[in-house]
Amino acid sequence: MSRTEGQLLSTLLCHIGDHARGNEDLLKEIPGLRVYGGDDRIKGLTDKVTNCQELKFNSINVRCLFTPCHTAGHMCYFVWEDDCTDSPAVFTGDTLFIGGCGKFFEGTAEQMHHNLTEVLGTLPEDTKVFCGHEYTKRNLKFALMVEPENEKVKEMLSWAKARDDDDKPTVPSTLLEEFEYNPFLRLSNEAVQRFTGKTDPIEVLRVLRKEKDNFKKPKDRVPAHAMMALEWGLLRS
C-alpha cells in the first residue's frame, strides 16, 4: 500500500484464515476495502467467493479455485490481464509450493490429488506459480531423496541454495517447471512410485505426504575453509 504515489489498497484475496492476520486493522484504516475468500474463518471477510467464480478489477481478471485439503475452505486464485502478453499467474497459498504441496490438515489425499491434477495441473503450462511460503530449499532436498537421479531437481536445488545465500526469493516458478521436479506432481513417475512402493496415484501421494511430514532435511555441510577458520579462532581465543 503506497499513499505517497497516490495508490491505495482496495482489494485483498485471502487463501485461508492464518494468512489473513491484520485484515481487521486494514479495514479500519482503509474505508471501502473488500476482503475476498472462501472460508468464513477469514477475519474481516466481506465477500465470500465460490469455486470458478470470476472477479474483475479493471483489466485484471481473477478466477477463484476451490482447493480444500490443507484447510476446508482453501481457495487459490488464477489471474490474468486483458490484452496482455504476459503469462497468467496462480496464487496457490498452502496447496502447491515450489517443489512441494501443503499438509492435509483438514482434508484427504483424494482431495489434494484432485487439487493438484484436476484444478491446478490443468492450467496453462506457462502459468507462474506464486505460493504462500518460501519452503523451496527444504522441498527440493526432499525431492532429491525421492528422485536422486533427477538432474532438474539437482539443478533447482543448487539454484535455490544460491538464491537463499543472496537473500533472494525463489518464487515464482511455472507449472511446466513444477512438473519436472515436484514429486507431488510426478505421481506416475517410476522413480516416485518406487520410492513410495505404490502405483495408484492417490496412494503414491498419500505416502509422499507422510514421508515429507517426517522428513528431516540434511544439514548443509559447512565449507572446509570456514570450519578451519572457526577452529583457528577457537584455538586462539
Describe the fold and architecture:
By secondary structure, the chain is an alpha/beta fold. Helices cover 36% and strands 18% of the residues. It contains eight helices and eleven strands. It has helices spanning 23-29, 109-120, 136-146, 151-165, 175-181, 190-196, 201-213, 224-236, and strands at 11-13, 34-37, 47-48, 54-57, 60-66, 75-81, 89-93, 96-97, 100-101, 128-131, 173-174. The strands form three sheets. Strands 4-5-6-7-10-11 form a six-stranded mixed beta sheet. Helix 3 runs antiparallel to helix 4 (151-165) and helix 6 (190-196) packs across helix 7. Residues 1-6 have low confidence and may be disordered.
Strand proportion, as a percent range, falls in: 15-25%
Strand line-up in the sheet with most strands: 4-5-6-7-10-11
Question: Which class of secondary structure composition applies to the elements?
Answer: alpha/beta
- H/I helix tally: 8
Unreliable stretches, pLDDT < 50, 5 or more residues?
Answer: 1-6
Q: What best-fitting shape do the alpha-carbon axes yield? A: globular
Pattern of helices and strands: EHEEEEEEEEHEHHEHHHH
